[in-house]
Amino acid sequence: EYGEAAPDAIVEEPQNMDLEHPTEARICMNFETIAALTNQWKSCFCFRKIMTVKTVNTFIQKEDYDIPVRVYLPEGEGPHKVLVFYHGGGWSMNSLDVYDFVPRYFAKYGNVLVVTPEYRLAPEHKFPKGLEDCYDTLVWACEHAREYGGSPGSISAGVNFAAAVSLMARDRKGPRIHKQFLIFPAVVLGIGYRTKSEQRYGNGDYFLKINSEEYGYSYYLENPEDTQNPYVSPLLSEDLSNLPPAFFTSAECDPLLDQALMYAAKLQDQGNQVEYKIYKGMVHA
Prior knowledge:
Layout: H1 22-41, H2 47-50, E1 54-61, E2 66-73, E3 80-85, H3 101-109, E4 113-117, H4 129-144, E5 150-158, H5 161-171, E6 179-183, H6 196-201, E7 246-253, H7 257-269, E8 274-283
Helix pairs in contact: 4-5
């Protein structure tokens, strides 16, 4: 059975991206979201404390794009464990500033060094550009963690891109990831995966509007066949062995809940360590 949203859950209206004018739409939505989130966070006991977290802005130089990166510094000399954090937004929305409160919280209360990239967004930059930016950030964090008081042997990857980056690191024999944190993850974009949780919560009444019976990801993917790529749909990967331990955070009233549960079960079936936390009565994000 699927429950109802808790009385104190904040259920926002679905965000609709203007794909014909993406830059203008993002500017408007980002300012609106930052204002709303700041108003909510100001009433929390932790607000003043997380705002004391020091940050450093830098760039990862690539041939075609310099990736803006923000490093959040925990207190103390370290060496600190390192979290590479990828903000959410359906591959097309949000920014470092929109999600700024989250890595601040991790740095303050988790005492971890957080590295988060301003990866490229669709539809201007389709798969795999944004994902490659995220992987390059993982490699950069491994190479430069010591400069900021971090331990390169303790790197974890967080949020939706973390699943794909974990597969890429294994396949490319890249940095060894300590743990992958999958927070409200979308792990399959293929047509025909409209799960029961998506049917129950995916019509826009619980913030996220989604219909997996339709090819609705053309803004992110060049071709419909890309939905079968394991770096797009990790759930469809035939080989999920030898991956980092996975910790899932899900909301009960989230259309993506069943996707995450299926991915967790498949990871566990193929010999990976899995932990799972579902927040009752909460909605996506």
